[in-house]
Amino acid sequence: MTNSSNSGKPRFAASVPMLLLLAGLAGAFAVPKVARTASHGVDTDLRGGVKSFATAYALIEQNFADGIDADKAIYEGAIPGMLRTLDPHSNFLDPAEYRLFQQSQAGECYGVGMEVMMDGPHVVVVQTFPGSPAARAGLRRGDVIVAVDDENVEGMDNGEVADRLKGPRGTPVRVGVRRQGAAQPVSFSVTRGEITPSVVDAFWVRPGIAYVNIRTFESEGVSRDMEEDLRRMGEENVQGLILDLRENRGGLLNEAVAVTGHFLHKDQTIVSHRGRSEPEQVFRAKAGNHGRHYPMVVLVNRNSASASEIVAGALQDHDRAWVMGENTFGKGLVQAQFPLSEDAALLLTVARYYTPSGRLIQRDYAHHSFFEYYYHNRQDETPDTTDVKMTDSGRTVYGGGGITPDEKFASPALNAFERRLLAPAPGVFFHFSSVFFGAEAPRLAADWVPDEALVARFRAYLAEQGVDFSEADFSDNRAWVAEQLKLEMYRRAFDQRAAAQVQMGGDPEVERAVGSLPRAQALLEQVKRAMARRNAG
Fold first, then answer.
1. Mean pLDDT (whole number) for 387-411
2. Which is more confidently placed, 15 or 277?
3. CA nearest 8: which of 259, 333, 264?
4. Which of 260, 237, 245, 243 is nearest to 296 (CA)?
5. Residue 360 gets which letter from DSSP?
């Protein structure tokens, strides 16, 4: 991770839904805001290499059978190729990408406040954020975007549609959608604005047991939103807390530090980074936990990366939380921004992140292909015994491979029938709900649950859509089907928090985490005794 988001995400995350947010969220990219300049010192070997490159390029330009596009050869070939020999996260921004990057940092582009994704060849609305321009205008989950400012966008991908929806704050954009149940496309006038959606869900999963899910650290205000949610719930009443960082691929360093600092003692180390040309920098808890010592369980999985690994690693090293789940991704490289001529830039790795005990977060990439680095299942790998450290209470922990949980837990795999209904995203529950609600605004009673008639209607819908399943498939998975219908319907009729409560209510790992809170309590007592012995000695 770096001080921001994009390189905190593994590249395979590019297929997740695209957020049409305020593009100018401060620092919401995976590089520090302060640009660097290259040193003028070039050694003899490098000068020779540059001369060889120039000679090779001249030969290609003069003799290649077809004409040479210089920009393509340099920006798509030479520079990215060089970076690929270094590490998986150094990156190159061509002039067009760099302009968008600068606009986003300067806050020059604003959005409409909704999340979209590809549904086959169509771009569909996944959600509108509460209070956003899109929500106020009347756009909603399930709408298929067909036009932007009267330009037909059918056949474009979500990135192209997103670009057309962005623009200066206060400017209008007309969005045309096709909506299930409406005879003709529906048009909405939306005024672009600053979007600050919360990426935090917090609620009670049991009396006295709080659940907090942080979906990403990409935007400013994550720590503020978490603290406001805990204050709203009454943190003084918390007897145990489940912090869910599963699928959190990282983001802003300052937000990770602030979230972690909320649970640690003031001045405790959270993370440090250092590199060959970078002096060590240490980040510590600023305000501290103000005497709050309830037990915590942190949930992680293989897609917990970067900023989420900093949080989990620090809480584990200080024995502040019991970590449960899978080995995390292992992304602990720091990128800095180096502008180049021709309005391009490098995002170059300059340092590595270390947990408070001194563990390296980054896992090995030098002995694997980048494909293996991103996609290899590492859950059965043995710990790196060359990087052995101790937590505050004296427990052994290992570095160089992400964060290894204290308690392994892999969520049960979906069976073939379940996979068939959920893939490809957004899936048949999404489409059925569009049909169910039609053109009318989704409304449900607060305690609504699917009845047998609705489940039967869904079964008939599957048959109409040609989904292959047997009577046994449906019968064996009837409870799961009802739960998925409830989740999808809640997403339509209520907000993200209500849907999250439905989802987490049936989550086996959350259930296990609640049962593991006594282990977290034992850690707190263990580290307290260890510190007392050290102070006495």
1. 95
2. 277
3. 333
4. 243
5. B
Cα–Cα distance measured from residue 217 to residue 460, given in angstroms and rounded to the nearest whole number: 41
Among 9, 166, 331, 486, the active-site one is: 331
**Whole-number Å distance between alpha carbons of 304 and 324:** 12
Judge contact between 105 and 27, C-beta under 8 A.
yes
- Does 331 qualify as catalytic in the annotation? yes
The two tokens of residue 310 are: 């900093």
Say which residue the tokens 């980054």 belong to: 362
Q: In 10 A of CB 197, how many CB atoms?
A: 22
**pLDDT at site 97:** 83
Angstrom distances, CA of residue 244 to CA of 13, 73, 296, 312: 19, 44, 10, 10
Strands, DSSP E only, in 113-239?
114-119, 122-128, 144-148, 151-152, 172-178, 186-191, 200-206, 209-214
Q: Which residue carries 């998986």 as its tokens?
A: 88
pLDDT, tens digit, 9 for 90 and up, residues 130-160: 889 999 999 999 999 999 999 999 999 999 9
Q: Which two tokens stand for residue 27?
A: 């620092």
pLDDT one-digit tens code per residue, 322-354: 999 999 999 999 888 888 877 888 889 999 999
- 3-class state of residue 251 by DSSP: strand
> Distances from the Cα of 3 to the Cαs of 30, 254, 329, 355, in angstroms?
6, 7, 18, 16
b/e sequence 101-133, b meaning 16+ C-beta within 10 Å: bbebbeebbbbbbbbbbbbeebbbbbbbbeebb
Contacts of 37-45 with C-beta under 8 Å, sequence gap 24+, read 37/338, 37/339, 38/338
The β-bridge partners of 127 are 115
Give yes or no: 306 in active site: yes
Q: What percent of the chain has pLDDT over 70?
A: 89
How far apart are the C-alpha atoms of 172 and 192, rounded to whole Å? 6
* Residue tagged active-site, from 317, 392, 406, 507: 317
Q: Which of 90, 104, 306, 308 is catalytic?
A: 306
Beta bridge partners of 189: 174
- For 38, counting Cβ atoms within 10 Å of its Cβ (0-12 exposed, 13-18 middle, 19+ buried), the class is exposed
Annotation marks residue 33 as catalytic: no
Cβ atoms of 388 and 398 within 8 Å: the answer is yes
**pLDDT (average), residues 230-239:** 97
Question: At a CB cut-off of 8 Å and minimum separation 6, what does 508 contact?
Answer: 411, 412
Residue 195 has which token pair?
A: 């979007």
Handedness of CA 477, 481, 483, 487 (dihedral sign): positive
- Please list the alpha-helical segments (H only) found in 386-505: 416-422, 428-437, 452-464, 471-476, 478-493, 496-505
The Cα-based distances of 41 to 46, 223, 342, 350 in angstroms read: 10, 41, 21, 17
Residue 22 pLDDT exceeds 50: no
CB 439 within 8 A of CB 138: no
